[in-house]
Design a protein that fits this description.
about 500 residues; about 70% helix; globular
Length: about 500
């Protein structure tokens, strides 16, 4: 597909260089990382509330009182997936725009747009379904920029010795958001507060406004631009954070990136993982209510357990990967592939087996075990972006996450199509078996090709740098690539 010089790794360098000890001067950078984590909590609260609203009484404008559930399964699939219609579009543009206007401005602008649209959904949903779909698309457009640009914010505020802590704290916000959203959304939807289901949008949007105000007051693009950081911490961060260099569109080696087999392999695994992950994220409450006959008040809490298990698997796999690589037990390439096998093959088997169980307890146990191992996926494909290209990882992540969101938007539509017009538990179980089967097949296919074509080595085209980069010390004077100490094991892009 391309020249060997473009795809072959420049240097193996499988060991990990020890990073400096903990940096203890000043604590303001932890305010930044907690606000970033809270941003990701809001990101997921605004994303998953629609599923509970649909199950909690949200109806189209032409629905009468004796027709409490007028949305067909197919229409509900379109409503849930419409978020991803916008989400995939702004992934790569967000990573590029932040190079010109600042990552913090892009991050907060995206969530402000999503927050405002969320607040007005109860009003606009009474107009027409198309207006509702448009609002969901706008929410997706706003949230699409958040994950790629977060990479730039972290590298500006985190000393090299604390990158692992920063990425774990900030990236964990997405799981906390999913857990909180699934735990309290059912309660709000069935309460009388603000009319029941509309409270899902009013409450979360109000919290989002408060967060945005705090972000605008306390967060800046770099410590040097902040009036809240003490001089001692400013000097410390200037000496311990990676130097920032403006990345222009013309400098990105698009041809070499898009024809690099390991990059394409990682992106394809990302895409296959996205279908099943977003299908579970959007349709798990529906499955618990319609297949297992849980009350929505209870299903909200139970629906949060798979996300808690996924978060646990994420942390365990990240620490496991770092330990294996640092002790030289496996190469970086083999570590990523072994973690990927645990993340995709085992969950695929468990997910497909769900529809063969008849009791709710067995289904919940199997589902949570599957999601624990599925959490390993982020320590396989996402960290691999940094392995392959430290310089352009944010751009490649934006590209891969955008394509992953494309399959993510197909998942809820596919489920809605399968369940539309279905009557009876046996027929419903058969259709869910098809949905889980397709997700399982994609996980297996994505992991199999990653095990064949994937790599954990830095690619040669990433090391083609100018004299400024060379003088910064990022690259050895002899042309060899130094091992990156940037650890993304605790951070996810989806």
């Amino acid at each position: 597909m391309t020249d060997a010089s473009d795809t072959e790794p420049l240097l193996e360098n499988e060991g990990i260089e020890p990073s400096p000890g903990p940096v203890k001067s000043g604590v303001y950078r932890y305010v930044i990382v907690m606000l970033l984590a809270f941003g990701f909590i809001m990101d997921y609260l605004l994303r998953i509330n629609m599923s509970f609203a649909l199950d909690g009484g949200m109806v189209p404008p032409n629905c009468t009182q004796d027709q409490p559930r007028c949305w067909s399964q197919q229409v509900q699939g379109y409503i849930l997936s419409s978020f991803f219609w916008g989400y995939w579009v702004t992934q790569l543009p967000g990573a590029l725009i932040c190079c010109y206007v600042g990552a913090t401005k892009v991050f907060v602008s995206g969530l402000i747009l999503a927050t405002l649209c969320t607040f007005f959904i109860p009003l606009f949903s009474s107009w027409s379904m198309w207006v509702l779909l448009s609002m969901r698309v706008l929410i997706g457009l706003g949230q699409g920029v958040t994950f790629p640009v977060a990479l730039n914010i972290i590298t500006s505020w985190a000393p090299t010795s604390e990158l692992g802590v920063f990425t774990a704290l900030s990236g964990g916000g997405q799981y906390v958001g999913a857990i909180l959203g699934n735990s309290i959304s059912g309660v709000l939807a069935q309460s009388s507060f603000l009319g029941g289901w509309p409270s899902l949008f009013y409450v979360y949007a109000t919290i989002g406004v408060v967060w945005a105000i705090l972000w605008l007051i306390f967060v800046s693009d770099s410590p040097q631009d902040s009036r809240w950081v003490g001089s001692r911490e400013k000097n410390l961060l200037a000496a311990t954070t990676a130097p920032k260099k403006t990345l222009h569109f013309s400098e990105i080696p698009w041809k070499k990136i898009l024809t690099c087999v390991p990059v394409l392999s990682t992106i394809f695994m990302h895409m296959c993982n996205g279908f099943g992950y977003f299908m579970i994220l959007s349709d798990l409450p529906k499955y618990l209510v319609e297949q297992l006959h849980f009350d929505i008040m209870k299903s909200g809490f139970i629906a949060s357990l798979p996300h808690l298990m996924s978060w646990s698997g994420y942390v365990v796999s990240g620490k496991f990967s770092d330990m294996v690589i640092s002790k030289g037990l496996l190469s970086r390439t083999y570590t990523r592939k072994v973690v990927g096998i645990f993340a995709q093959f085992l969950p695929a088997v468990l997910l497909f087996s769900l529809s063969f169980f008849n009791d709710a307890t067995s289904i919940l146990v199997v589902m949570n075990i599957a999601m624990f191992f599925q959490g390993f996926a982020h320590s396989a494909y996402y960290v691999n972006y940094m392995d392959l290209s430290p310089r352009f990882s944010a751009v490649i992540c934006g590209f891969g996450n955008g394509l992953g969101a494309v399959l993510g938007l197909i998942g809820p539509v596919f489920v809605g199509y399968l369940l539309n017009g279905v009557n009876g538990d046996d027929e419903l179980k058969c259709q869910w078996r098809k949905a889980f089967g397709v997700a399982s097949i994609l996980w297996v296919v994505g992991c199999t090709q990653f095990c064949i074509f994937g790599s954990g080595l830095r690619q040669s085209w990433d090391a083609e740098v100018d004299k400024e980069d060379d003088a910064s010390g990022e690259f050895g004077m002899d042309g060899e690539v130094k091992e990156s100490t940037f650890n993304l094991s605790g951070f996810s892009i989806i």
